[in-house]
Amino acid sequence: MDVDTREGPRLGDAFGATLLACLEAGSRPGTVREIVERDDGYLDGQDALFYFLPSEQWDALDHWLVDRAAGHALDVGSGAGRVALHLQDQGHAVTALDISPAACEVCRRRGVCTVVEGTVFELLGPASEPQFDSVLMLGNNLGLLESRRHAPLLLGALATLTRPGALILGRGTDPYATENPLHLRYHARNEVLGRMGGQIRIRVRYHDTATPYFDYLFESIDELRILLSGTGWTLEEYTQDGPSYGVVLSKRKG
Amino acid sequence: MDVDTREGPRLGDAFGATLLACLEAGSRPGTVREIVERDDGYLDGQDALFYFLPSEQWDALDHWLVDRAAGHALDVGSGAGRVALHLQDQGHAVTALDISPAACEVCRRRGVCTVVEGTVFELLGPASEPQFDSVLMLGNNLGLLESRRHAPLLLGALATLTRPGALILGRGTDPYATENPLHLRYHARNEVLGRMGGQIRIRVRYHDTATPYFDYLFESIDELRILLSGTGWTLEEYTQDGPSYGVVLSKRKG
Is B6 an interface residue toward A (CB < 8 Å)? Predict the structure, then answer.
């Protein structure tokens, strides 16, 4: 019989489904939560409305970053399109990029003009031209650096896709600014596994679906400096708000 | 090295930890959610404050049930003690029973006088006397009937623990009053596995802990009638509010 008797969630676009449900519930607070599960079982949640907030409701760090955007912008991990919409309203050319089909659908429905479903690496065609001047990685999306192994690959691809003088405007979190024993235990576990302390393996869950597990990197500013060495990018400026920080990375003249 | 590199949550008293966190956060709305995971991966949540609500904030069905309590009451699955506290305030003798150590701690801190950590079966000592006149199973706790196999065992134990004329005041939910495809798919899966349609296998999660999976039974009134046959209990009265219902079961004169 064609009945699924598995234990645990089905693989699916749980992140996009979360955003779509929030949109369809009228983007009101308290209706849909984004549930993130770390591979040690730690569950965390936040109101999915975060991804829909208009710029008037952003914090100072987000403004500090987007105000530095110039030229053609690439919004990496665009979610529900809050950053892309804001830049578009400001008159920028923006390409919203997200791996989640339903997140792309949400971006389109909300009026983002250029939406690409995929990863940064998929933008690298055989005939890809450097076309972007700013790369936005807000909402902790420096986490997409993933790991020691992956960070230079992503930074290299972004160097190929951007024009001279381009900036990466990224936001991250220092994982070590915590006393939460669950997180301290996770850092220790990562050390044993040869991973970076703040390299979390997570998945998003929605109803009975889950994304595949993926690595997401919380790194200190010092760790970020090390990850940048040997890549085409330099740490130009940063600003902090508690454990959260924004960075401006500039492309080396080459 | 003594570092835990498991995948998935640790076994623990996640239900009690949820209640304790809610109590320690001041029992305010929106601070702690109870997260329930079904074994198909379906995640559901509700504000943990539900377990703390004073009787003025209960619905009519809860009042319909507690107003029928008489004599010495046993509150089965007492959670944070909302039912036990209300009955105690009304002058009843009440024993709060919960399998969760931290839930028992919450009951004690909130002023429940008699709290027992354990199951109904653990109340059955070799010299146990029938001592209860009312058994309260609010908040869907008819779900503790678990399954076709377990229901008569629990009902039998409750018959042994209660005096002549005793009542079970229970609340349940008809699982078939849904059009949610996730639930309909789960019913079909249960049928394949030889389980009752609304027999859900769930666990509670909190941070990086989870309870063991346990069966919890949503049954229609008709299914409940069948489960009662051959036990010491008769369906005396019931009242419905959408898919949710309250029942009064009376102990057969014997």
Answer: yes
How far apart CA A88 and CA A54 sit, in angstroms, is 13
Residue with tokens 């250029």: A114
Substitution target from B1, B204, B208, B209 for chain A, most A beta carbons within 10 A: B208
CB contact under 8 Å between B45 and A33, yes or no, is yes
> Residue A157 and residue B252: Cα distance in Å, rounded?
76
A8 CB neighbours in chain B (<8 A) are: 39-41
Read off the tokens for A200.
């979390």
Which one of B8, B43, B193 has the shortest CB-CB distance to A207?
A: B43
Q: Average the pLDDT over A211-226 and give the result.
A: 97
ipTM over 0.95? The verdict is no
Q: In 3D, which of B24, B22, B63, B62 has the Cα closest to residue B45?
A: B22
| A83: CB partners within 8 A, 6+ apart | A66, A75, A136, A138, A139
Q: pLDDT tens across B156-205, in order?
A: 999 999 999 999 999 999 999 999 999 999 999 999 999 999 999 999 99
Query: Both tokens of residue B90?
Result: 């009304």
Is there a contact between A208 and B40 if contact means CB atoms under 8 Å apart?
yes
| B17 shares contact with chain A (CB less than 8 Å) | no
Q: What is the mean pLDDT of residues B243-253?
A: 94
Which residues make Cβ contacts (< 8 Å) with residue A187, sequence separation at least 6? A175, A176, A197, A198
Distance CA A169, CA A248 (A): 5
Query: Residue B254: its pLDDT value, please?
Result: 59
| pTM for this predicted structure | 0.89
Q: From start to end of A21-161, where are the E strands?
A: 33-38, 43-47, 73-76, 94-98, 115-117, 132-137
* Euclidean distance between CA atoms A174 and A239, whole angstroms: 12
Give backbone dihedrals phi and psi of B125, rounded to 5 degrees, phi first.
-85, 175
Distance CA B177, CA B147 (A): 19
Spatial distance between the Cα atoms of B76 and B158, rounded to a whole number of angstroms? 10
